[in-house]
Every structure is written in structure tokens, then in C-alpha cells.
Amino acid sequence: MSAVGAREAVALAHRAEWARLVAALTRRFGDLDIAEEAAAETFATAVERWSADGVPPNPAAWLTTTAVRKAIDRIRRESKREDKHREARLVQDDDQHEPRGAIDDERLRLIFTCCHPALAMEVRVALTLRMIGGLTVSEIASTFLVHEATMGQRITRAKAKIKATRIPYRVPSAEDLPRRVSGVLAVLFLIFNEGYLATGSGTDPVRDELTAEAIRLTRLLHTLMPDDGEVVGLLALMLLTEARREVRVSPSGELVPLGEQDRQAWNSELIAEGHRLVRRRLATGMAPGRYQILAAINAVHTSAHDVADTDWSQVVALYDLLVRLDPSPIVALNRAIAVAELDGAEVGLAIVDRLEDELGEYHAYHAARAELLRRLGRRQNARSAYDKAIELAGNTAETAYLTRRRDQA
Predict the structure, then answer these.
(1) Is the pLDDT of residue 179 over 90?
(2) Contact predicate 112/171, CB 8 Å
(3) pLDDT at position 213, please?
(4) CA nearest 241: which of 192, 202, 288, 290?
(5) % of the chain with per-residue pLDDT over 70
(6) C-alpha dist (Å) from residue 295 to 138, 230, 300, 337, 380
(7) Distance between alpha carbon 309 and the CA centroid of its chain, in Å?
(8) Measuring CA to CA, which residue among 304, 302, 250 is closest to residue 276?
């Protein structure tokens, strides 16, 4: 096999197997550093070996076997300096030393380990994006709008704390779940978002494997906590968003915004399931949380057969409710976009302009501002805003769309 073909095969295997491999190694060896480094070394070895020998008949099994050997080699080297006890554990069947619980899923266990309350929320999210999502430190730093070195230090310190404090690798007991779930939901939402609109400049604009994994894990969480409104809300939000995935990028590789999408090509089964979940939560009469409101907003969008039929007054009302729960500048930006549809571009732009200090380095801020300026006929200002959005955007499909819009302004 050619080197190019081997790299493509390894890239496919990395997308499909990274999270499972890291989780399995963590369960066996109890060390996030060993798990991550062994997994990374294994994929590097795969490029070399698969180029020479061809892709193995069972790539997942090859990766697992190779990664375990690499982890054992490292631990044996370390055990010369430490006690010999650890080496004896390497030949044990690690499946025997811990009960699995109601749901046997290694990746869900790893998420709960990374989202332990002993870690700060932003660290929980960053660590899980790295260990489960397989995102690079650079991609995670972009998500948090911080420097890559800063994010690398956070992740390193988090892994060290998990090791030093012996945070267990398990799904918490039923009574512990409610206080642990918020961090897990935040992580799953960000993993899904990275798949929905990837930030890495060298990645596909839409990463199907990340959205699929986030949905799969959220479904498992829903099985664990069927009555938790925010779990239901996040699952509904993901399904209603995923329903539009096939038409979000044009054949030429350009992002297709919601208003221009072929709604007949949306996945009707996912939309129906998402709507059922939203209605079920509304029927409880309980006050909704953040994810439930976001799901309701998406339900309004996916209920409209044409963009002109969108009930923008309901969307704005839902954002008014959301901003009381989550007064973040990004929520305010999204609300401003909805207000512009309801009350006009000038009203929306006035709201957007007030967010510059907080969102000046966020590409979506400049993209929204550019669109509103274009609608108002302020072409030169619109082109400048599009230029800034293009400069800050990392997604290739989004950059292509913004470039076309700028050239049309």
C-alpha cells in the first residue's frame, strides 16, 4: 500500500477508534498519560507498518493489541524504578477487577472520570475533548479562545490531579449522578459542536464521527437518567441539529446557512424524534433548563416548511428566556440575529455592536455584523466585517461561504 493510502486508512481508524482505544487503555492501566501516549504511538506506528504490510484485516484489533504492548513496555521500563507490583497487574485480565454497572461503556466511564467535581469546569471540558474527542490542543484552545500553551498546561495539570487523587474510572452511583451530570452535558455539547462545525484548519468542515459519538453517549446518559430534563433537552437539540447535517455543506465545499438549506432533504426521522422529546418535556410543566430551551428553538426552526414560515417571535421569546439562564455574549449574539429577523436589521445591529468588547475575536460576531450591514446597504462596512470574519474563521466551509458573501456585498 502507498504511504498516502496508509495515512488515509489510519486517519479513518483514528476517527473511529481513538476514543474507544484511549478508554480501554485507561480502564486497564488506570493512567491517562499512559493511555494517551500509547494510543498516539500506536497510530504513528500504524502509518509506518500499514504502508509496508497493508491495512490489517481487523484494524481495531490491531490497534488495541499494539497499544496494550506499548503501554506495557512503558510501564515495565518505569517499574525498574518503582515497585514490581505493577508489572504483575499487566498480565491480569482487567475485566475481572471492577463491576461494570448498569451500562457497560468505557467511553462513558472515561467522560465521568474527566468530569469529576474535583476539577474546574473548563478543565473537565478541555480534558474530555482531548481524551474522548481526540481534538488537538490547538483545536481545544480555539474553542476556549485561549493560547495553545495555556490549554496544554491545563490538560497536563488535570491528568496529574486525576492520578494523584485517584479519581475513579467509573460511572457514578445513581445518587451521585445528578450533581455530576452538568459537566458531562457541557462536554458532550462541545464535542457535538466540534463535529457540527469543526474549528481545525486541517480537518473536514463537518466531523461526522464526533457528532455520532456525542449522540451515542447522550443516548446512554438518557438511559441512565431518563427523567433528567437537561439530558432530554441536549439529546433533542443534537437530533434536531444532526437532522440538517447532510445539507449543511454544498458539493463545492461551502457552508449552506439554515435559510438556504433544502428542507426536504432534512432527516425527518431525527426531526420527529427530537420534536417528541421536546413535547414530552413541555408536558411536564417544569421550568426548562438551557439545553431544553435550545432544543425548543431548534424545534421552531425545524417546524417551518420554509424559512419565511419561521415563527421569529417565538424564537426571540425563547432567547429572552435563555438569556436569563445563560447571560453569555454568544447567547446575546444569537438573540440579536433573531431580533433582526423580527424587528429589522438596524435593531439587530445595535444589539450586536454592543457586544464588540466581549466578542471582538470571535468570527461569528463579525459574520453576523457583516450580514446585517449588507442588508442595510452599508457595503464597504460589510466587506470589512466579512474580511475580519474570514481572518478569524478556521472552518474551510465557513470561510468559503463568507468569501462569497463578501464578494457579493
Answers:
(1) no
(2) yes
(3) 86
(4) 192
(5) 91
(6) 29, 10, 9, 17, 37
(7) 30
(8) 302
Higher pLDDT, 340 or 113: 340
Residue with grid cell 431548534, as numbered in its chain: 298
CA angle 205, 210, 212 (to 5 degrees): 115
Decide: residue 124, CB within 10 A, 0-12 exposed, 13-18 middle, 19+ buried.
buried
pLDDT digits (tens, 9 = 90+) for 210-269: 899 899 999 989 998 999 999 999 999 999 999 999 999 999 999 999 999 999 999 999
Report whether 249 contacts 270 (CB < 8 A): no
Q: Count Cβ atoms within 10 A of the Cβ of residue 377 and give its class: 0-12 exposed, 13-18 middle, 19 or more buried.
A: exposed
Q: Which amino acid is at 279?
A: R
Flag whether pLDDT at 202 surpasses 70: no
Query: Could you give the angle at the alpha carbon of 378 between the alpha carbons of 373 and 380, nearest 5°?
Result: 105
Q: Integer distance in angstroms from the first to the last C-alpha of the chain? A: 48
* Mean pLDDT, residues 136-143: 80
What gap in Å lies between CA 170 and CA 193, rounded to an integer? Answer: 25
Tens of pLDDT along 368-393? 999 999 999 999 999 999 999 999 99
In the beta sheet, which residues pair with residue 249?
A: 255
Backbone angles phi and psi of 395, in degrees to 5: -85, 125
pLDDT tens digits for range 264-294: 999 999 999 999 999 999 999 999 999 999 9
Helix (H) or strand (E) holding 402: helix 396-408
Question: Quick check: 92 pLDDT over 80?
Answer: no
- When computed from its CA atoms, the radius of gyration of the chain, rounded to whole angstroms, is 23
Q: Within 13 Å and on the Cβ side, how many CA atoms surround 116? A: 17
C-alpha 138/C-alpha 194 separation (Å) is: 13
The domain over range 311-409 is classified in CATH as 1.10.10.10 = no
pLDDT at 100 over 70: no
Nearest Cα to 167, choosing from 242, 113, 99? 113
Q: What is the pLDDT of residues 13-56, one digit of tens each?
A: 888 889 889 999 998 888 898 999 999 999 999 988 998 888 89
Dihedrals φ, ψ of 250, to 5°? -75, 165
Phi, psi of 249, deg, nearest 5? -125, 130
Classify residue 171 by its DSSP letter.
Answer: P
Give the domain ranges of the chain.
3-93, 311-409
Alpha helices in 106-228 (DSSP H): 106-114, 121-131, 137-144, 148-164, 177-196, 208-224
Which amino acid makes up residue 32? L
